[in-house]
Amino acid sequence: MALNLTAPVRDFLARHHVMTLATQGGAGPWAAALFYATDGDALVFLSAPGSRHGRDIALQPRCAATIQGQEQDWRAIQGVQIEGVAAPLDGDDRDRARRRYAERFPFVRPEAGPDAIVRALARVRWYRLRIDRLFFIDNARGLGQRQQFDAS
């Protein structure tokens, strides 16, 4: 399933590093800020499986995410709103996510990170957020301008 994202959307995702992931679980809705890396039309991230959002994903994989800058001028606001499905990764998919993430965040490479990071990485789970729908907000094109991209 391809989203066929435009260059401005791909550039936006490449310039930013943190998404806010919104999940729903037994304790209600939850949001968590997480580093991400792109992997084709998906986002990959890591988290402890026992974290609240990790437990929520295990119960209900449908989730949402946002990525935005911290602009003070409304004309400079850009951001994405995402609907999708998050899932833990194993095997080759997990290894690919690790590589993509390490390309973006060198501090997670075993040879680069301090022992504390290496130990922490041994306890995390790798996830992929498969994007079903993405909205790109770009106020530089006018207030409230938004493009929709759906997986086909």
From TrEMBL:
Q: Which InterPro entries match?
A: Pyridox_Oxase_N, Split_barrel_FMN-bd
Domain Pyridoxamine 5'-phosphate oxidase N-terminal spans what residues?
Answer: 6-124
Protein name listed in UniProt: Pyridoxamine 5'-phosphate oxidase
